[in-house]
Amino acid sequence: MKIKDRWEFANKPPPFALQGDEKVSTAITSMAQRNIGSVVIVDDTFKVQGMVTERDLVRRLLAENLDPDKTTLASIMTISPRTAHEVDDVVECLRLMSNERFRHLPIVDESGRLVSILSQGDFVAYTWPELLVLVRKKATETLQRPSMQTLGAILLYTLAVIAMSNLWQDFSFR
């Protein structure tokens, strides 16, 4: 399923974005007010330039003892973060995020302008209903069609019972 096909995607609020010359303290305050974990850094045309996440704040600001009131977002941002398009597959995006260990994915248009941002939590919420349907379908198929292993075990058990029965009859009549 494509990102744009999810009704949740169409109902997301506009993405939070700032320009690189903004101070980190501004971003921190806004992130806390919005209860979000990242800010996308854009240029004047809203093209994605970078991203600052909570992890960046810890590693590049706090660990370096930088002053958030004097430090710009551009100086601590992750440059050229991975992006996706509205026509990309939801599961493939989640797989990419999991494999490359990042939690926020900017969604851009054909020109690279920011359209939205999705988190791993968004992708899990988007894919969870389909995963439940798939699990239910597989479970139903398994219950309706016994596997070859199960059939083999039943056949082996039946042969063993017949053989033991024949041995018992032979033994009891001697």
From TrEMBL:
PROSITE patterns: CBS (PS51371)
Segments crossing the lipid bilayer: 150-168
All residue ranges annotated as the CBS domain in the record: 10-68, 77-133
Keywords: CBS domain, Membrane, Transmembrane, Transmembrane helix
SMART domains reported for this sequence: CBS (SM00116)
Presence of the UniProt keyword Calcium in the record: no
Native source species: freshwater sediment metagenome
A Pfam short name: CBS
InterPro entries in alphabetical order: CBS_dom, CBS_dom_sf, Diverse_CBS-Domain
Protein known as: CBS domain-containing protein
SUPFAM superfamilies noted in UniProt: CBS-domain pair
Gene3D superfamilies documented for this protein: CBS-domain (3.10.580.10)
